[in-house]
Amino acid sequence: MSRVDNPYRTWISPPVLSVFALGVSSGLPWVMIGSALTLWLKEAGISRTQIGFAGLIFSLYAINFLWSPLVDAHRLPLSRRIGQMRSWILYCQLGVALCCLLMSYFPPPDATQGLIALAFVLALCSATQDIAVGAYRIDIFYGADSKALSASSAAVTAGWWTGYAGIGGLPLWLSDAHWQWPQLYGLMAAIMLLLLF
Description:
The longest helix has 29 residues, at about 110-140. The chain has eleven helices and no strands. It has helices spanning about 15-35, 35-45, 50-55, 60, 70-75, 80, 85-105, 110-140, 145-165, 170-175, 180-195. Helix 7 runs antiparallel to helix 8 and helix 7 packs antiparallel against helix 11 (about 180-195). It is globular and about 55 Å long.
């Protein structure tokens, strides 16, 4: 089959693959502040009220449009070198990894408030990354044909589910294999760093 006739050419192009990787890095934080955090707090004997309060962290994703103009207006270090949105993505991914690593040093019940505060900052970084990923995808596929646009939409969604349900299932599985939650959060921080692009 010739290269022109290859139906998978669009799907394996570098821009689509990069969007898939960004989708993975957007899905993984949901595990860190969702199922993993809930299980950790539950196993530590934290009340359902406090666990429910921690769940309010997800509201940041619903209101991230409020600070999206800041992402568009403010240039970060490295923005001239790698681009405006890529610099935001890079710093947000580093923020997620750092928060995840620091969370491993705040075990409940002794440091529950600190743990939840770090989860809040992690969610803030992740929600901001989602803004930048969306803008970056628009930038690189601006003027592209409908096949490339469809592939990018599918790739970011598939990436998100890979990060959330695929890679995100790893810490839950390892917790059943007697890994401690601080170790698992350290592992998730390392995975997040591996996803840096």
